[in-house]
């Protein structure tokens, strides 16, 4: 027979007492007689009566200093029935106990003598009355003997600054990874709702028996493993402090479920002779992230489902819980919501969509009313939206939640925010790593640097030292996320509840301290690489980093390099070889001179031949065609950066959107439009494709951050500020979560009567982004720019644009290397973007859209510009025909003197409006290779010319 999961109250215990009085309710180890259900209500009442005799009021704070066990359980329940239970850590030192009692100001202390903190002596010094409890191994489990109180409980003052809300039955301190734990009041409503959620999540019945080996001053040991088992009519084994011996003794009493933290699970698996109770039906993992490898090992060796949950003190326990059946669980997820409402909020405060990262905010009856005596910074965690957990997470469409780390733990490495959870997951994926933690240490130029500590499993596998582990880590993590140093230690510092204490690691391994000579062997002095190309690269990098020597295997970023310095190295090479376009992302993809040499050899063989003075013999012209299988793969690889369309309070004024694939002449067209006094045409903004600036930054990451310079350049042009001010404005908007409609509104307000032109080829990739143009603006205009597919493919290939576009398409979770050829990728992008744009524009009134062919733009520029002006309702201006004029006004310069603009880095090397540029593809290809689908779309757009019938098959200068 089972009991429904709530609603519960204290009378539920009486119900179960009447229903099966002879069944055990609370058990202890060492063959002590159990407390039967028939005696449980009387036991709790007897303890409560003694408290009332001491004058304890309903809102009085009852401090409990007791070791974990059956008596701690019943005394806490009795304290909750009488007043407000305030459990203390029994292992506190004398000074810690004094600090806790001074802060909590209890009205009475219930204690067991002999604990290290000497709580009774400190209470006496503070004038707090005490009540001693005692028991022996022969006593019934959970039924202590109580001495008379040393005096009447202190009265509750009317101006008590720690006064808790009505109905509060427990005050807990948060896990204590900081110097000053927060005080969390939990009401009867919170506690009973949380118990109901736990019972439902585990399908508990009166036949279930919990094994409690957790500390009984945290919610897990106090309520998960006492309140919930008893309210379900079952029983609990109070086994005291966790040890392998205690676990074995507890298993002898036939538990059906046990709750442990991951470090305890690991200890269990290290037991030479592992024997778990055959009665166990599940193991519940709490308090800290459970590494997937540890979960798999535990399930395989124990033969039990391991149910990872997510909970907090502030929610009286469970927030989310995995399904019981392993087949219904999702790797790495903490499960589905349990009794609460969960919403993920973007920095802007708007709900995040499925798969999108946001802060976990919890609402419902389980949520505490709010911290007691909270600072202003802590108090804001509780708002009308719910409880802001401070955890970053993402949720899929089915409601499964994944945690990405803590907001406060993010590492700001040179302006790039890095989540320690990402690094830890990568470390734990390595064979031989049992536990891992990433943390920040101060750095003189980056602000913060990433370091990590690991605990090896067994003999550590292949990791004889930290260098071997770092080498294994580099292929997994994106560059700029690999720890600068990796420390091998015996154990990570954790609280008694299993919470990681990063601050202790940061203090121990600060870069300001001297490395441990035993742990960190002295590395040999570096020497220049032997191979000419790697040496050439190392010399450039060393000059930027101001190093005397740079070795072939030295990492650019671990040598102190910043994103700005990475851009400088790319610019130096670009200046020396202006015929080639080198992107800063190459430094992230290949961050050592040896790796960079291999990268350049693979992607820029002609340039490498010129660098080392060798003869270039050309590349193979054969290419695999775009098949339906290739097309399906491409479409499946595209990630959506905009799960939901953000909306402003009212549509913004009209804007102009240039919609085209890359390398279609959009930079030329933008520069021409920028010459008109009625238009404001900055470089690519990349705004509509993301919900806010923070998600945009995360999408592009450090390797492609330079592609986001269009917005600061637009702010410089619109508001008249310098580059540093514009960058600071963008950083502030990223921090506060300014929405994209708000940013557009700011730009449009600053430019006055001029019409904003947004030229961002990426918009055409996603129909949802195109739809956002209509919802964000009132009557937007659209310029559909097309170029012959061969012309676009040729230009895309020469610019090595796949280095930028594949990560942009596949998203931050994908690798940097595209499995498609450059020609395949270019053709697929051309077809995909034009397919989306033509479909979108079918629904737009003809008066607000115009189709422009690149070939017409360069062959008949004035006529084309006049057509554009007529569509936009503005007069033609001859300055539109001088795209190279006034780079500052047209924003065809970079952010800073000498830097390049984004879009077409070689724009100023062109000859302005060059009609020959539309025909150069005819010299490069000997036979047609486009797919039928691409040709069908090309014919519809007026680009039907095939190679076999190409006019003027002549050779042009390149």
Automatic annotation (TrEMBL):
- Could you list this entry's UniProt keywords, alphabetically sorted: Ligase
* Gene Ontology MF annotations: medium-chain fatty acid-CoA ligase activity
Question: Is this entry keyworded Ligase?
Answer: yes
Which residue intervals define the domain Carrier in the entry? 528-604
What InterPro entries does this protein map onto? ACP-like_sf, AMP-bd_C, AMP-bd_C_sf, AMP-dep_synth/lig_dom, ANL_N_sf, P-loop_NTPase, PP-bd_ACP
GO aspect biological process, one term: fatty acid metabolic process
Statement: the UniProt record of this protein carries the keyword Ligase: yes
Q: Quote the PANTHER family the UniProt record gives.
A: ACYL-COA SYNTHETASE, MEDIUM-CHAIN ACYL-COA LIGASE ACSF2, MITOCHONDRIAL
UniProt record similarity statement: Belongs to the ATP-dependent AMP-binding enzyme family.
Spell out the protein name for this chain.
Acyl-CoA synthetase (AMP-forming)/AMP-acid ligase II
Which organism's genome codes for this protein? Ancylobacter aquaticus
């Amino acid at each position: 027979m089972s009991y429904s999961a709530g609603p519960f109250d204290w009378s539920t215990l009486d119900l179960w007492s009447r229903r099966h009085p002879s069944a055990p309710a609370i058990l202890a180890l060492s063959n002590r007689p159990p407390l039967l259900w028939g005696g449980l209500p009387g036991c709790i009442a007897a303890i409560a009566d003694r408290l009332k005799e001491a004058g304890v009021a309903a809102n009085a704070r009852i401090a409990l200093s007791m070791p974990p066990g059956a008596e701690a359980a019943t005394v806490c329940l009795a304290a909750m029935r009488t007043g407000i239970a305030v459990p203390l850590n029994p292992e506190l030192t004398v000074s810690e106990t004094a600090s806790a009692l001074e802060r909590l100001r209890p009205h009475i202390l219930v204690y067991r003598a002999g604990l290290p903190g000497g709580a009774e002596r400190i209470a006496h010094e503070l004038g707090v009355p005490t009540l001693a409890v005692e028991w022996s191994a022969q006593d019934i489990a959970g039924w202590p003997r109580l001495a008379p109180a040393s005096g009447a409980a202190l009265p509750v003052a009317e101006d008590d600054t720690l006064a808790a809300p009505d109905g509060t039955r427990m005050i807990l301190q948060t896990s204590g990874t900081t110097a000053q734990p927060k005080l969390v009041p939990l009401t009867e409503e919170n506690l009973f709702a949380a118990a109901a959620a736990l019972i439902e999540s585990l399908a508990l019945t009166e036949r279930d028996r919990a094994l409690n080996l957790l500390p009984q001053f945290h919610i897990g040991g106090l309520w998960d493993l006492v309140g919930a088992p008893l309210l379900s009519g079952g029983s609990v084994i109070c086994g005291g402090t966790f040890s392998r011996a205690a676990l074995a003794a507890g298993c002898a009493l036939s538990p059906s479920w046990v709750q442990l933290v991951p470090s305890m699970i690991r200890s269990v698996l290290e037991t030479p002779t592992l024997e778990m109770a055959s009665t166990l039906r599940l193991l519940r993992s709490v308090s800290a992230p459970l590494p997937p490898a540890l979960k798999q090992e535990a399930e395989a060796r124990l033969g039990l489902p391991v149910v990872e949950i997510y909970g907090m003190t502030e929610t009286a326990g469970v927030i989310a819980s995995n399904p019981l059946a392993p087949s219904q669980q999702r790797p790495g997820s903490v499960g589905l919501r349990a009794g609460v409402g969960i919403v993920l909020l973007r920095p802007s405060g708007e709900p995040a969509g499925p798969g999108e990262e946001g802060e976990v905010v919890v609402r419902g009856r389980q949520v505490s009313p709010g911290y007691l005596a909270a600072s202003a910074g802590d108090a804001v965690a509780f708002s009308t939206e719910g409880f802001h957990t401070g955890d970053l997470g993402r949720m899929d469409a089915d409601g499964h939640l994944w945690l990405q780390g803590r907001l406060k733990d993010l590492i700001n490495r040179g302006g790039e925010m890095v989540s320690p959870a990402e690094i830890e997951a990568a470390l734990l994926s390595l064979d031989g790593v049992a536990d891992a933690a990433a943390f920040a240490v101060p750095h003189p130029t980056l602000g913060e640097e990433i370091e990590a500590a690991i605990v090896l499993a067994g003999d550590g596998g292949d990791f004889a030292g930290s260098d071997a582990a770092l080498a294994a880590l580099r292929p997994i993590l994106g560059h700029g996320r690999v720890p600068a140093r990796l420390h091998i230690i015996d154990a990570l510092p954790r609280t008694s509840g299993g919470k990681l204490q990063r601050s202790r690691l940061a203090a121990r391994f600060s870069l300001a301290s001297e490395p441990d000579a035993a742990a960190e062997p002295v590395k040999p002095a570096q020497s220049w690489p032997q191979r000419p190309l790697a040496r050439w690269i190392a010399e450039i990098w060393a000059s930027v980093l101001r190093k005397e020597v740079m070795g072939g295997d030295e990492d650019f970023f671990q040598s102190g390099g910043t994103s700005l310095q990475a851009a400088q190295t790319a610019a130096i090479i670009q200046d020396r070889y202006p015929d080639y376009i080198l992107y800063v992302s190459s430094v992230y993809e290949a961050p050592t001179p040896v790796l960079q040499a291999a990268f350049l050899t693979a992607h820029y063989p002609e340039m490498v031949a010129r660098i080392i003075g060798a003869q270039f013999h050309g590349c193979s012209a054969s290419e695999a065609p775009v098949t339906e299988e290739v097309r399906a793969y491409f479409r499946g690889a595209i990630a959506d950066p905009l799960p939901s369309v953000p909306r402003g309070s009212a549509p913004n004024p009209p804007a102009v959107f240039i919609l085209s694939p890359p390398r279609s002449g959009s930079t030329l067209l933008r520069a021409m439009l920028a010459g008109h006094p009625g238009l404001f045409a900055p470089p690519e903004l990349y705004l509509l494709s993301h919900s806010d600036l923070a998600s945009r930054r995360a999408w592009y990451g450090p390797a492609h951050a330079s592609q986001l310079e269009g917005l600061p350049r637009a702010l410089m042009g619109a508001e008249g500020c310098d580059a540093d001010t514009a960058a600071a404005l963008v950083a502030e908007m990223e921090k506060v979560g300014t929405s994209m409609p708000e940013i557009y509104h700011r730009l449009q307000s600053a430019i006055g009567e001029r019409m904003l032109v947004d030229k961002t080829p990426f918009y055409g990739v996603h129909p949802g982004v195109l739809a956002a143009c209509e919802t964000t603006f009132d009557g937007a205009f659209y310029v559909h720019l097309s170029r012959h597919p061969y012309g676009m493919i040729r230009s895309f290939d020469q610019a090595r644009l796949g280095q930028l576009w594949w990560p942009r398409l596949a998203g931050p979770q994908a690798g940097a290397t595209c499995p498609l050829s450059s020609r395949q990728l270019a053709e697929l992008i051309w077809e995909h973007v034009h397919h989306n744009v033509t479909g979108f524009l079918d629904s737009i009134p003809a008066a607000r859209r115009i189709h422009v062919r690149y070939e017409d733009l360069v062959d008949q520029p004035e006529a084309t510009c006049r057509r554009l002006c007529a569509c936009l309702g503005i007069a033609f201006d001859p300055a539109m025909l001088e795209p190279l004029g006034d780079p500052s006004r047209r924003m065809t310069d970079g952010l800073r003197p000498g830097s390049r603009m984004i879009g077409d880095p070689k724009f100023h090397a062109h000859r302005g409006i060059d009609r020959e540029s539309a025909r150069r593809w005819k010299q490069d290809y000997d036979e047609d290779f486009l797919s039928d689908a691409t040709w069908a779309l090309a014919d519809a757009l007026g680009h039907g010319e095939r190679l076999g019938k190409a006019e003027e098959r002549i050779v042009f200068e390149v």
